[in-house]
Amino acid sequence: IIEGRLPPLHGDARLDQVTALVNLVARCWNPAPGKRPTAKTCEREVYWMDRVVPSSRNSGGSARLLISLGFMHIRHNRINEANDCLEQSMKIASSAHDEWAMATTHYGFGEVYRLRGQYGKAEDHYSTARVMYARINDPSPFASTLKSLADIHRKQGSFDRAVELYNTAQQIYSQMGDQPGLANTLNALGELHRIRGEASIAKEYYLRAHEISTRSEYPVGAARASAELGDIYGMEQNYPKAVELYKFAHDAYTRIGSRIDLANTLSRLSVVYWLQGNDTEAQESCFAAREIYTNIGDGLGIAHTFNGWARILWKRKDFAGAEEVYQEARRRYTEEVGEKFALANNSLEMGQMLLSQKRFQDAEEILGEASNIYSQLGWHDDYLDCESYRQLARRSIGT
Fold it and tell me: What is the predicted pLDDT for the residue at 37?
């Protein structure tokens, strides 16, 4: 180590599967002893890393190995690979009558369908898993299914039902002393209140999640809470604090090796840099996020980066370029990922740009599409905001 004669850690496909471990080893090899992680830090970081259950000769062990592999793929957004593992684990677990393995496989399928945006199928699998976990009296995964069901209801706008499920999960995690589960639920509650426009309540949940995650040395929870708090400070126009929190999350996700979360954080950084007027940093973060999204096949993330790039071009007054890129984001939202809320936001931004160009007829048409989507989804405040711009376009037509 002192002489620097070390084996390469990057560029090997096998090591790319264990990024968090590779990053930890690299830090342990730092030639400056004071910059190396402590034994306690190493123990905690290894504790949170992806792992698989060693296979045994019985079929139940094989099912659990496949489940662990499936969840590892899910965490790295390798959805097709995860689905393959889960299909195999379900066959083995069913033949072995391993109810825990069957329940956990159903939960895994719920995660797969959630990531694919097929919320009805996700809810069916989560509900089946919940019933099975209740039957075998396993409270921790039972609470996880409640939290995941709440996530589905939140995404579909059923906020009251989501809060009810989150609160029940929170009580179970608290009774068990499950700090990571509690932190994840608090982060989710924070997101729910942020979506509802209740930023001050959301902030309190995120701060609690961050405190619990830091105290229990749970890096994923701390990173997630930091990123969400960055959103809140961005809304408060405290951009330096937002950037600080995003960079903390960025560094944590880099160490952990969570590429999807790293890309999401870069995308958020791009927005804040854009709001600060730092176009160069905004562009770099946007393109870095797109590269990761492309590598992992995240269509929604790619579409978001096109929308972000269009925003940057608009600010540079490259209206033709911005419109072209907005249209590409719009195509992706419509044809590839079917994300209606993001499509509405895209239409609203594009309508605002057209208004600034005094293209009132075009603006009224696309703002009308955004209003219809917001109305269908029940996003009342966004609908009213969009309608105010639409009325301005209507009044300006023919003037």
Answer: 81
